[in-house]
Design goal:
Elements: H1 13-30, E1 54-56, E2 61-65, H2 71-76, E3 79-83, E4 87-90, E5 96-97, E6 103-108, E7 112-116, E8 121-126, E9 128-130, E10 137-138, E11 146-148, E12 154-161, E13 164-166, E14 184-191, E15 198-199, E16 207-215, E17 235-242, E18 248-257, H3 268-271, E19 282-283, E20 286-287, E21 296-298, E22 304-305, E23 313-321, E24 327-335
Length: 345
């Protein structure tokens, strides 16, 4: 069954931050994919050679709803809906932030800056009060770019390789990084449409929407109020098997994949299903303090036509995988009966 986390409490600054982030990275999101530019690099906060907790993962939904915390807002309301363009490295307010790669400061704003490395790769550092100026040369692990702004508790790191925003957690990029937690498929459901009635798996016919709720937990526990809040896996796949003999009828299909780069910005509601919202999401004037997010993935956007299957009993198997290959699967059994009448033995 579906679970909706109702939001009850606000942070007006989140809207301004989201709008600036969209503006600053829109050109990179729209650029065609190219080969990654450089090699591995250290962490932007000390110690540079040890991993830090990641409280926001690449591709996570970033949702700011313009309406109040109601089902109507959650399932049909307007707002700002984007894919998270980097990783959020947890660190105390006031922590010094350093460049992960030497280069030249390209842009400076009141809460973020960008450093270009001269090799086709640049990095953006968000939620930082800058201590450098445009045009200044900075050295990795040496120059203090600035300090984490009060109330933020993290630095957001975006990597842009040859104009394309890429996942900093993929192998050969942010290092060292290990991930030992295993993502989960929390639930699988069938609906008449993406926001429609949930259907009983005991009898499906015609076109149905397939949804999966997925979560992953940071390997290193995040301190403070962000502790125990989930992130998204890096990959979600699915297949359909015959229930009686396990034969694969619908081969593996990919529903969500941010192992390397992000989907196009206009694909947000094609990838995520309505009901999705981020950790501590904003609903109008209400901030859902300490409330976990909900990550609903559309397995077959536009619906899966059960008439492509023979009337029989099947298993829908969904697998969630993280950036280091840890994975788990969940399955739900369903019966297809498109012939007229009611199914019998």
């Amino acid at each position: 069954m579906s679970t909706t986390h109702h939001i009850r409490s606000s942070a007006a600054t989140a809207l301004a931050v989201a709008a600036t982030l969209v503006f600053a990275t829109a050109s990179a999101l729209a650029a065609p994919a190219k080969q990654a530019a450089g090699g591995s690099y250290p962490w932007p906060v000390k110690p540079f050679d040890k991993p830090h907790p990641i409280r926001g993962s690449f591709g996570d939904p970033r949702t700011i709803f313009f309406g109040p915390p109601t089902d109507r807002t959650l399932y049909a309301g307007n707002g700002s809906f984007t894919f998270h363009t980097g990783v959020d490295v947890s660190a105390p307010d006031g922590t010094a932030v350093y460049p992960v790669e030497s280069g030249t400061v390209r842009s400076v704003s009141n809460d973020w800056l960008e450093v270009a490395g001269g090799n086709g790769r640049s990095f953006q550092y968000w939620h930082v009060s800058s201590a450098v100026s445009v045009g200044e040369h900075v050295d990795a692990q040496s120059t203090v770019l600035g300090h984490i702004i009060r109330g933020c508790g993290h630095v957001h790191l975006t990597e842009i390789d040859n104009g394309v925003i890429v996942n900093p957690l993929q192998s050969g990029h942010l290092s060292p990084y290990t991930d030992k937690s295993v993502p989960k498929v929390d639930s699988i459901e069938f609906r008449t449409s993406v926001t429609g009635k949930e259907l009983m798996p005991e009898l499906l016919r015609g076109r149905v929407e397939l949804l999966a709720s997925v979560t992953d937990m940071p390997t290193l526990r995040v301190p403070g109020v962000w502790r125990d809040l989930p992130v998204t896996p890096a990959l979600v796949t699915w297949e359909i098997r015959r229930a009686d003999n396990g034969k694969v009828i619908v081969p593996t299909r990919t529903a969500y994949d941010v192992r390397n780069h992000l989907p196009a910005p206009n694909m947000f509601w094609q990838i995520y299903a309505r009901g999705t919202h981020q950790n501590m999401s904003v609903f109008g004037a209400h901030y859902s303090f300490m409330q976990p997010g909900m990550y609903l993935i559309r397995l077959a956007p536009g619906g899966f036509d059960t008439r492509t299957l023979h009337d029989a009993v099947y298993d829908l198997v969904v697998t969630a995988t993280d950036i280091r290959g840890n994975h788990s699967s969940s399955a739900v059994r369903f019966s297809v009966h498109n012939r007229p009448g009611v199914s019998g033995v």
